[in-house]
UniProtKB/TrEMBL annotation:
It comes from Citricoccus zhacaiensis. Its cofactor is thiamine diphosphate; Mg(2+); Mn(2+). Residues 20-133 form the Thiamine pyrophosphate enzyme N-terminal TPP-binding domain. It comes from the Bacteria. This is 2-succinyl-5-enolpyruvyl-6-hydroxy-3-cyclohexene-1-carboxylate synthase. Catalyzes the thiamine diphosphate-dependent decarboxylation of 2-oxoglutarate and the subsequent addition of the resulting succinic semialdehyde-thiamine pyrophosphate anion to isochorismate to yield 2-succinyl-5-enolpyruvyl-6-hydroxy-3-cyclohexene-1-carboxylate (SEPHCHC). Its EC number is 2.2.1.9. Keywords: Magnesium, Manganese, Menaquinone biosynthesis, Metal-binding, Thiamine pyrophosphate, Transferase. Binds 1 thiamine pyrophosphate per subunit. Belongs to the TPP enzyme family. MenD subfamily. HAMAP family: MenD (MF_01659). Pathway: Quinol/quinone metabolism; 1,4-dihydroxy-2-naphthoate biosynthesis; 1,4-dihydroxy-2-naphthoate from chorismate: step 2/7; Quinol/quinone metabolism; menaquinone biosynthesis.
């Protein structure tokens, strides 16, 4: 541009691609990022080289997956296991779009997934350049923070004022002889680092506008929220690789300090002391405590302190202790306590105290929807899965106040529920044992029960039939024996194998995934781990009933009984398949173990396997599920 009075010469010093990548990487590590999953690509190369430098310095761990969707769900599992932000790196183009399912799950589950996407520079946008599309604002409904970064723009500077500003800044910081370009580049790095820092704060659910030192950066959309995913779109201009004489990044000093805390355990007796309550002074109420997904062990402690029955979903991680009621969905019945198929105790419930997100059963949904019940929800901070005011439960932040609302159970209230649960659980166990004796092998419901009861350590449950089977059948242990993970943010089956791999890598423990055949096939790419990559210690237990079993338990099962509709329901909902899982395992280099009996299952899971992955396949008859469920329901109802 010519020098004219209206257009004075401006300085627009640019950071090269590797300088941008190194600045962003340093800010990510400083902000707590310790793991990232990389999908291959050329445009993302600068960030990959910078991350590799940080890994060599011991500051983080990297994992490689060739498929972006698998990479994103692996990162999601790592974040689930660690409680930290975890990055997923992609190149430009359609690669970016493959992150959407995992970002949607992370949004609704409150997981700090950091999408780091590479992009073409400004001058290539809208030109038809290869692998170039608009990536800004691609995930607006599902991220807490989104920003496009590049090496081009000096922030917060009027172009007409750049020369004077740069000269003044240079004189102040580096002396009168300092070149304005040096100052501009330094300020640009500071800008990039501040944006990354704000993004990570937003991922943690913080309102970054009130954080000293971060306010005033333009073009950043931040909303106060629960923890969740973020998106940093990085525009890189060639060259994309280090120069031959590149001296490498500035020295990384020291090792990473501090490890993820992992899930927090709460001792029920400790909570009783913390609440400092005289239970006898509370009002009596026939209250039950419902523990939904992600609540943690707090509901178990709360129910214990107040002497209340606890109805806990498997992925609540509160399903333990003497207050936890076994077979509770059968006791509630289809109408949440008001139907003919419910236990008389359920109709006597006066109040429900909810922790976490109820996601699994229509029985609990019906219970919470009962107009005759008072309901309250423990909400100490914003959550990701509903907007304030959208649910009928009264939100209560303080546990002491919640205890006053809940009251304590009248004499016999808890005991009656415990006895009903014991009788129902025994009837369920007997019905499943009888079924096993008839067919000579465990079915889907019994397999889910055995896996949940046997696993000691991380357990990942697929979000379809199996997690519901566990909820129906798992006898609550006295003390917690496993940590249960599940993608219940949106309850999809996509990415489950990759999520479980991330959990195994993140915990460093042998992990068990229990899933159906369609869940396995939906993420079969998650089985691919390249040579030289860390292989998760993972057992995948597949209940293979050759299709989708969940729909038989929904309205579609009744539709299938109508004349001429069985084939329609089977084709479009059952979605039958005949894939050879054994051949699939051979293709991916995994050990395949057929499971033909309860002894096979228990001895394999309870043994001492070597490192790596195994697939345990148990074949089940999907058509028998309604009949088995009916037999169990009849046995349980006979105990009422």
């Amino acid at each position: 541009m010519e020098r004219t009075p209206d257009h004075p010469p401006t300085l627009n010093p640019a950071l090269d691609a590797l300088q941008v990548a190194r600045t962003v990487t340093a800010a990510l590590v400083d902000g707590g990022l310790r793991e990232a999953v990389i999908a291959p690509g050329s445009r993302s190369a600068p960030l990959v080289y910078a991350l590799a430098e940080a890994e060599r310095a011991g500051r983080l761990r990297l994992h490689v997956r060739i498929d972006e969707r698998s990479a994103a769900f692996t990162a999601l599992g790592l974040a689930l296991a660690s409680g930290r932000p975890v990055g997923v790196v992609t190149t430009s183009g359609t690669a970016v779009g493959n992150l959407l399912p995992a970002l949607m799950e992370a949004d609704h589950a409150g997981i700090q997934l950091v999408a780091l996407t590479a992009d073409r520079p400004e001058e290539l946008q809208g030109t038809g350049a290869n692998q170039t599309t608009c990536q800004e604002g691609l995930f607006p409904l599902h991220v807490r923070f989104a920003q496009t970064l590049s090496g081009d723009t000096v922030p917060e500077v009027d172009p007409d004022e750049v020369p004077d500003w740069l000269a003044a800044e240079a004189a102040e910081v580096s002396g009168a002889d300092a070149h304005p370009r040096t100052t501009a580049l330094r300020r640009h790095r500071e800008h990039l680092a501040s944006v990354v820092s704000r993004a990570l704060l937003a991922a943690g659910g913080f309102d970054t506008e009130d954080v000293e030192g971060f306010a005033g950066v333009p073009g950043v959309a931040v909303r106060e929220s629960a923890p969740g995913p973020i998106h940093l779109n990085l525009r890189f201009r060639e060259p994309l690789v280090p120069a031959e004489d590149d001296a490498g990044a500035e020295a990384w000093v020291g090792e990473v300090t501090g490890q993820p805390a992992g899930p927090v355990r709460v001792n029920p007796m400790d909570l009783t002391e913390q609440l400092d309550l005289d239970v006898s002074e509370l009002h009596e109420s026939r209250t039950v405590v419902v523990a939904g997904h992600g609540s943690g062990p707090l509901p178990a402690a709360f129910a214990h302190a107040l002497g209340l029955p606890l109805l806990a979903e498997p992925s609540s991680n509160a399903r333990f202790g003497h207050n936890a009621i076994g077979a509770y969905p059968w006791l509630l019945g289809s109408a949440g306590g008001l139907g003919e198929d419910s236990h008389p105790l359920a109709a006597r419930i006066e109040q429900v105290i909810l922790f976490g997100r109820p996601t699994l059963t229509r029985q609990v949904s019906a219970l919470l929807a009962r107009a005759d019940l008072a309901t309250a929800f423990h909400q100490p901070e914003p959550v990701a899965w509903f907007e304030p005011g959208a649910r009928r439960e009264r939100p209560v932040e303080d546990l002491g106040e919640l205890a006053v609302v809940a009251g304590h159970g009248p004499a016999g209230w808890l005991t009656d529920w415990q006895q009903a649960g014991v009788r129902a659980q025994a009837a369920l166990d007997d019905a499943l044992a009888t079924r096993h004796d008839e067919v000579g092998r465990p079915g889907a419901l019994r397999t889910s029960q055995l896996v949940a009861s046997t696993v000691r350590g991380p357990l990942v449950l697929g979000s379809s039939s199996v997690i519901r089977d566990v909820d129906l059948s798992w006898r609550p242990p006295t003390v917690p024996q496993s940590i249960v993970y599940a993608n219940r943010g949106l309850a999809g089956i996509d990415g489950t194998v990759s999520t479980a791999s991330g959990v195994a890598l993140g915990t460093g423990q042998r992990t068990v995934l229990l899933c159906g055949d369609l869940t396995l096939l939906h993420d079969v790419g998650g089985l691919l781990v390249g040579p030289g990559e860390r292989e998760p210690d993972l057992d995948i237990v597949v209940v293979n009933d050759a299709g989708g079993a969940i729909f038989a338990g929904l309205e579609h099962g009744l539709v299938a009984q109508r004349e001429g509709m069985a084939e329609v329901v089977e084709r479009f909902f059952g979605t039958p398949q005949d894939v050879e899982v054994r051949a699939l395992c051979a293709a991916y280099g995994l050990e395949w173990i057929p499971v033909d009996s309860e002894d096979d299952l228990l001895s394999t899971l309870g043994g001492s396997p070597g490192p790596g992955r195994r697939v345990l396949e148990l074949r089940s008859d999907r058509s028998a599920r309604p009949r088995v469920r009916g037999q169990v329901e009849a046995a349980v109802r006979a105990t009422f």
